[in-house]
Design a protein that fits this description.
Layout (H helix, E strand, L loop, with lengths): L5 H25 L10 H4 L1 H19 L12 H31 L8 H24 L6 H39 L10 H25 L26
Helix pairs in contact: 1-3, 1-7, 3-4, 3-6, 3-7, 4-5, 5-6, 6-7
């Protein structure tokens, strides 16, 4: 990665995340008919918007909270609260996104959980929930001993990054699947690369870039907390990284 200070990098990454949300919202509004809460195809459109916003953008933001220089010193509790709030918001949006797609399928007699995208997406959300609960128990609640936090920390870190990669893969595969279904009987097939396909494919690349940049920031040694090796430094409830992250 370029030798860019962390705070300007955060501004750049935040802008990219905002663009991802704008793109997925514009796609659903302009080409897919907008949004509704009545079980129609317009209700399905909430699914990609909520998943990209929650499982990619907010999840990535939660991962980087403890990379902020102000979080390196002083009380950790405010940063734990912020970290946990972002992760909890991401999970809440993911649950709403799943509810939207299941409601749409059930109202239209479409089978649930038949595609690779659906398997991958549900597995990601379930793993996310387990990771959040395990992190909350090990790193926030007072009864977790230091040896347990130290033992669990590498597992927490590994699965945190893994969940982010799975989230990106789920979103990209979902975009591709939706394009195949939507453009199959349209005026211009997907293979002809109509404007919608170009726009949605670009969205997929932006999501992938966002995920890669977050993982790169997490791996950069100079952006880690100075006390990264301390077991107490990873007392965090989030599913990604502790303060050591």
């Amino acid at each position: 990665m370029l030798d860019l200070p962390f705070l300007p990098f955060c501004v750049l990454l935040g802008g990219l995340g905002f663009v991802c949300v704008i793109f997925v919202s514009a796609w659903c509004q302009h080409w897919r008919g907008g949004f509704a809460l009545d079980g129609s195809a317009q209700m399905f459109n909430w699914h990609p918007v909520l998943m990209v916003t929650g499982m990619v953008v907010l999840y990535g933001a939660a991962a980087l909270v403890y990379r902020l220089p102000p979080a390196w010193s002083g009380p950790k509790l405010p940063w734990k609260v912020l970290h946990s709030t972002l992760a909890g918001a991401a999970f809440g949006l993911a649950v709403l996104g799943l509810a939207a797609v299941f409601r749409f399928h059930n109202d239209h007699g479409t089978p649930n959980m038949y595609s690779l995208h659906s398997w991958l997406g549900l597995a990601t959300v379930l793993l996310f929930s387990c990771q959040w609960l395990a992190g909350f128990s090990a790193f926030l609640l007072p009864w977790a001993p230091a040896w347990l936090r130290a033992l669990y920390k590498p597992v927490h870190i590994f699965f945190g990054s893994t969940i982010l990669m799975l989230s990106v893969a789920s979103c990209v595969s979902g975009i591709n699947e939706k394009l195949f279904f939507s453009l199959k009987n349209g005026t211009t097939e997907y293979k002809r690369l109509p404007a919608e396909a170009v726009f949605a494919n670009t969205l997929g690349l932006l999501i992938l870039l966002f995920g890669v940049l977050v993982l790169g920031a997490l791996a950069r040694p100079s952006w880690k907390r100075p006390d990264a090796d301390s077991p107490d430094s990873c007392q965090v409830p989030s599913p990604l990284r502790g303060p050591a992250g």
